[in-house]
Amino acid sequence: MEKDLSELNLLSIFYFAMAGLTALTGSIPIVHVLLGLKMVSDPSFLGGGGPPPPFNPGWLFVGVGAAVIVISWTMAFLLLLSGLSLRAQRRYWMCFIVACVICLNVPLGTALGIFTLLVLNRPSVKEIFGVGRVG
């Protein structure tokens, strides 16, 4: 039981670190959003002195950059919530699903997700979380 609690605590620390890395790398597309806004607000920024293009590519920069930021920050929030839940031994299924999703983040997320799934599948850890208990 003590080993399970210490591993859950260690996993929660790794989830906090992964949340920080995800939020940090997810902030990089802010440059793309700002560049896209500059393209939209000043069409001469695109170069050339002719008429403006029929479709301003700045909107593509803004849309894709904003989507990447929202997805990354949402994942960072879920990682943070999962780390807190692992530490408090609550929300077993949310931790399980986040561990499955984070496996798509190669290579660090894959390692973290697999180790989390291995720990969460132990009967003693399920007992700590209260999974399978009636009442």
Provide the helix percentage.
over 70%
SS-based structural class?
mainly alpha
What is the CA-based Rg, rounded? 21 Å
Mass-distribution shape: rod-shaped
Number of helices: 6
One letter per element, helices H and strands E, the order comes to: HHHHHH
**Total count of domains:** 1
Biggest pleated-sheet summary: none
Low-pLDDT regions? none
Proportion of residues in extended strands:
under 5%
Distance between the termini: 22 Å
User: How many distinct beta strands?
Assistant: 0
Mean pLDDT: 92
Description:
With 135 residues, this protein is mainly alpha-helical. It has one domain. It is built from six helices and no strands. The protein has helices at residues 2-25, 30-41, 58-88, 92-102, 108-120, 123-129. The model has no long low-confidence stretch (mean pLDDT 92).
Offer a quick outline of the entry.
By secondary structure, the chain is mainly alpha-helical. The protein is built from 6 helices and no strands. The protein has one domain (2-45, 56-129).
List keywords for this structure.
135 residues; mainly alpha; 6 helices; 73% helix; rod-shaped
Fold blueprint:
Blueprint (H helix, E strand, L loop, with lengths): L1 H24 L4 H12 L16 H31 L3 H11 L5 H13 L2 H7 L6
Helix pairs in contact: 1-3, 1-5, 2-3, 3-4, 4-5
